[in-house]
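Figure S7 source data.
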Amino acid sequence: MGILGKRIKTDIIIIGGGLTGVCAAVAARRTGARVLLLEKNQFLGGMATGAWIHSCLTFHGKKGHKIVGGIPQEIIDKLVAVGGSPGHIRDTIGVAYSVTPTDPEKLKLILQTLLDKEGVRYFLDTRFTDAEMDGNRINSIRGINCAGTFEAEAPAYIDASGEGILAATAGDSFESGRDGKTQPATLIFKVRNVDIKKAVEYALNNRGDFHHETIFSLLETSPAPGLSGFFTLWNRANLSVPRDRLLFYQTLYGDEVGINSTRIPDFDPLDPYNVTFSQKKARIQMFEILNFLKDWIPGFEKCVLTGEAPLMGIREVRRIKGKYFLKGEDLLVGRRFPDEVALGGFPIDIHTPGSSTIESDEIGADGYYGIPYRCLLPERTPNLLIAGKCVSADFFAHASARVQATSMAMGQAAGAAAAIAVLKGVEPVDLNTEDVKKAVVKLGGILSPDTIDDLL
Ligand SMILES: Cc1cc2nc3c(=O)[nH]c(=O)nc-3n(C[C@H](O)[C@H](O)[C@H](O)COP(=O)(O)OP(=O)(O)OC[C@H]3O[C@@H](n4cnc5c(N)ncnc54)[C@H](O)[C@@H]3O)c2cc1C
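Tokens for the predicted flavin-adenine dinucleotide complex:
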């Protein structure tokens, strides 16, 4: 049992304290259940805080419909109140309608304060290691932390690990990547002492050298502009980094930008040799790009490395097979589902595995799509929900649904559903979907978008 003494008993156990897990935990508490959450990092927020993904995408469909609300919006509101975000702004790169810049350090504080206020029991620096099964059901789980190993049990579980580790351990099947290769990994790093005005001026004078959807008219006024391109300079420099462009977003602090340009194209998140090699390789690339920035990019001549993100950014690990496997074609037609419990509005954005390029496709219809409750239900395990980066989706649909605002919306739905199931004494798989939808809406979630935001 370890130093924690006895087997912990609760209503819902959540693996992972990323944005998905936090939203799930809060939703479950507000729906009336007790929660235990395990997070292997020493902080909450997952990729958003640990990998410095400080551009949250996206609370809006491509035509400006507000599609994500409730707990995810509350987190942003709290961040805005402490100067940790300007709120939703137009995405100057033009890929999404809106982007929400965040300060990762303030976000960590907001997330832990929220869990504390809601009475969520959670352990940081605590890793889920194993599950004890009773047939197809998860009976209990084991974890490890500074106290040693411990056991915990609950009638319902949520896999918000991003890696689908609980579902896979329970025996659910999954896919990973396309033709054996996942989207590349990227180590984000930040540089400061950047003259961003100079970089923007270059963009304004060389418009053909940037992503074709770039909103040039907003570059000078945006509180956190992003740029994707510098194609000519990148090509001329002939870097060893297998990527076709420089991509960055300014952080909230004027002369600092987060660089999203390292790339490990043959990444295998399930092979420890590959993961170790990739982390070392990404660091080498970071210093190569740093020199490139100083030598080639206007405004970056005197830039200084702030640091590398504590975690390498991993876009995809396991996509768990659920009762419904969301498909790329669903997104291309902006499909809506009778049992949808969350909406997504980010385009299909694939950093091509094994290559330097990006593949993208627009969301059809009104620029957003539904995520059915069945995508949160793994095929095999009846008392488990999956949400966020490990959701049930094919390679294409996942390339959209994996982003932060969509993941938070899924987490919110999973938390509500798990709590209803526990309170009713049934399995999540046996719930009436209308009850889940009602609970999501009660939490502030948006399932019938009726507001179009006119953002600046
Ligand atoms: C390079 C890169 C760029 C991206 N760019 C953007 C962007 O610009 N905008 C955007 O919105 N999204 C972007 N994303 C995607 C987005 O950040 C993530 O997909 C999203 O944050 C997923 O959230 P999550 O909570 O589902 O998963 P994660 O953030 O991965 O969180 C999962 C959590 O579970 C924990 N965990 C895992 N295993 C265990 C275990 N065994 N025990 C305990 N805890 C465990 C992890 O430590 C982690 O904290 C990007 C991703 C990458 C990698």
